Structure formats: structure tokens, C-alpha cells
Amino acid sequence: MNSSQKILVVEDDRKLSGLISKSLSDEGFRPQAVHDGETALRLVSEKKYDAVVLDIMLPGTDGFDVLESMRRSGNSTPVIVLTARDALGDRIRGLDSGADDYIVKPFSFAELLARIRAVIRRTGDASAEVLEYGGVRMDLVKRKVSREGENVELTAREFDLLEYFLRNHEQVLTRGMILQGVWGYQFDGMSNVVDVYVNYLRNKIDADWDEKLLQTVRGVGYVMRRESEE
Q1: Quick check: is 1 in a domain?
Q2: Lower CB density within 10 Å: C or N end of the chain?
Q3: What pLDDT, in 10s, does the model give residues 108-130?
Q4: Cβ-count burial of 142 within 10 angstroms (0-12 exposed, 13-18 middle, 19+ buried)?
Q5: Pairing relation of β-strands 130-133 and 136-139?
């Protein structure tokens, strides 16, 4: 994901909060951790975040109160409720209070990361109908792609991969990040599916142009970057 994307982690378990923050940092996010509802409310009123990971059982002002206060004030930042309370009534209250998603502890960090990416796509850049970079233009509604005005025919998976690169242009992406973001599962260290599809995509959007946008970062992964930006 884009390194400018800021995530507020509201979790009173400091060990878990640290683990969540480290996982987010490892995936290119900028997390900020707080441990009580009052501080969370102050921060969301003062700063802009791309998403909030919100525990329900907080000291003092609980997560439901934080969420309801945010929505009453018109704050539409995506919120993923993270809690050990798995009763149906709690899930319904969380969603009715304005949560964008709900995850019950214990949970998989890979699942949490995937859901964070999903809510950001739905509520953030995904609201755009057209993505453009380096002469590549992607119409998300008509599902059409062109480079320098010339149509490019892509398969559904190639389209999804290009969309991921366009949304994260100029950021170095590991194979694991790409696999998670496009295919929805973690990199197992063995699969070469990312390399195969990047090559497919290169043949369609780079091969006929002097400037190559999809660049390999040796030992790390790939980046969509204009050669003038290197």
C-alpha cells in the first residue's frame, strides 16, 4: 500500500497493539497506536487517517462510543472493529453504529491487513472512476485500459494487477504485498505467480514503448515508476 496511508490503531492491549502496528509498518502503512477511547476521539478530530482499527473493550470511553461519536460528528473514516465480543448483537451494534467491517479475536494478521486494504479501496481511491500514471489510463467503470491513447487488452487478472500498481505507483511492492493485494492470500515463498503475471503485463503495457514503467527491484519485488523518477 501507499506509504502515506495512515492507520490509527486503538487497542488497550499494548502487546497486541505493538504487533498490529509492526504488521502494518511491514506492509508500508504508517500506524499510530493509542490505548483509550478519549485519545482516539481527540486524534480523529485533529488528524486525517485512512482507516481506524478499533477495539471495543477500551477503558473509559469504549469502542462503540468512539464509533458512534465519530459518525455523529460526520467523520466517515473507515473503521474496522476488532474485538473479542463475538455475540451477534455486538456485531449488529457495531455495523449499525457505522463500522465498515468487524473482526473477532483471535484473528489472522493477514486477514486484518486484507480487510484494511479492502475498506480503503472501497472508501478512498476506489471512488475514482479513472486512474492514470505514466501515460497509462484505466477506466474502472468501462474496464478499459490505454497507453498514450492506444487501447490495451487485458485479462481480468491482468486488469486487477495493473490497478494495484496504479494505486501504488512509485512505491516498491514486495511479491507478498502484490499477492495479498491482488490474489487475496499470503506469499508462501514458493509461488512464482506474481512474476508470471508481471511479465504478462509488461508485454502489454511496456513492450511497445521506450519508457518502461514496471521495474524490477532486485531482491525485493516491483515498482511502477517512470524512468525519470528513478
Answers
A1: no
A2: C
A3: 888 898 888 878 876 655 456 78
A4: exposed
A5: antiparallel
What is this structure's pTM? 0.55
- Number of domains the chain contains: 2
User: 31 or 190, which is more confident?
Assistant: 31
CA 230/CA 228 separation, integer angstroms: 6
Residues 18 and 99 in one domain: yes
List 9's β-bridge partners, or say none.
33, 53
Beta strand pairing call for 214-217 and 150-152: unpaired
Last residue of a domain, one of 86, 104, 125: 125
Which CATH number covers residue 210? 1.10.10.10
At 135, list the grid cell: 501515460
Residue 23 is assigned to a structural domain of this protein: yes
pLDDT band at residue 42 under the 50/70/90 scheme: very high
- Pairing, β 79-83 against β 6-10: unpaired
Q: Note the Cα 24 to chain centre separation in Å.
A: 10
For the stretch 131-158, pLDDT in tens is 899 999 999 878 899 999 999 999 988 9
